[in-house]
Amino acid sequence: MTTVFDQIRTGLAAGDVVPFIGADALADVTHGKTGAKIPATSDELILALNNGQPMAPRLMYEFPRAAMNIELKRGRNAVNRALETIYADTGWSRAALHDWLNALHLPYIIDLNRDTGLQQAWAGRPHTLIVGIARIAGGLRYKLFSHDGSAYTAAQDENAIDPAAPILFKPCGTPWPEPNWIASDADFVDYITELMGGFAIPPYLKERRKGLRYLVLGARLNRDTIRMLLADFIYSAGEPAGWALIAGANDKEKRFCARLGLEVVDADWRELADMPLIEAA
Q1: What is the Cα–Cα distance from 131 to 174, expressed in whole angstroms?
Q2: DSSP letters spanning 57-97
Q3: Do residues 152 and 168 make contact, with C-beta atoms less than 8 angstroms apart?
Q4: Using an 8 Å Cβ cutoff, are 128 and 162 in contact?
């Protein structure tokens, strides 16, 4: 285990290892006024979208499916408004994982969560924000924003950003600097189709990412949506492709990671960061 952790830490320090962050990264994020945990996991998001009530078992299987049901009944804007209400709220605490990653000054992070925690951590650091978008009439499936260390500016194309700047990629959306969301099945079908076709990643990043390795943190890989996203985001990775820190990974997760060239490490990210292990909220 020590050898694996040493390899990961060395790669992070060199900027050759890219964190790929999932919902469990937000396990310790709570609201300063209510004490409530931020909705992040599939079940938590479904309950948040449905006034705290569970939905039918077939809809509870995965958040995009439930979001599609709500979209069909109440419109896409109902889902978007709910996500903005949750994630634009400035009362959420910072995740310990965000603070740890921020201290590493990494050049590239992929964050599947829709919160602004990492953006806030990088608020004083010039960087490029890439946000996933879907279901538009043609065109690319991302938006670029350049941050100068104080504020974001929308960039029309790659000519308006610094190609060497650190990258924060938020494929599923964020409310800041403008709300954009990938949530329902229809959103993901469109986004992943274009991701597979090469239209959801800026060309300069396709070159920059060649040979990089990846570190899956706070993410279970037993649902199709996250598996498809991961497979496309780590395309052209080095050999081996990296590591997935999954405590108690099941056989399905192990087989999937083996196909991608990811080594499954039975550990919590706090062990890698030399932090005390805590129970998830």
Answers
A1: 7
A2: HHHHT-HHHHHHHHHHHH-HHHHHHHHHHHHS-TTBPPPHH
A3: no
A4: yes
For residue 182, count CB atoms less than 10 angstroms from its CB and return exposed for 0-12, middle for 13-18, buried for 19 or more: buried
DSSP class of residue 172 equals: T
Distance CA 173, CA 196 (A): 18
Token representation of residue 35 = 């004490």
Q: 60, exposed or middle or buried, with CB in 10 Å at 0-12, 13-18, 19+?
A: middle
26 within 8 A of 38, measured Cβ to Cβ: yes
pLDDT in tens, 25-81: 999 999 999 999 999 999 999 999 999 999 999 999 999 999 999 999 999 999 999
Q: How far from 266 is each of 63, 123, 216, 247, 271, CA to CA, in Å? A: 26, 33, 12, 4, 10
Distance of CA 143 to the CA centre of its chain: 15
Q: Give yes or no for a contact between 184 and 236, defined as CB atoms under 8 angstroms apart.
A: no
Instruction: Could you list the beta-strand ranges (E) of the chain.
Output: 17-21, 108-111, 127-132, 142-147, 152-155, 167-170, 173-174, 180-181, 213-217, 242-245, 262-265
Mean pLDDT of 156-166: 94
* pTM, to two decimals: 0.96
| Cα–Cα distance for residue pair 18/110, rounded to 1 Å | 7
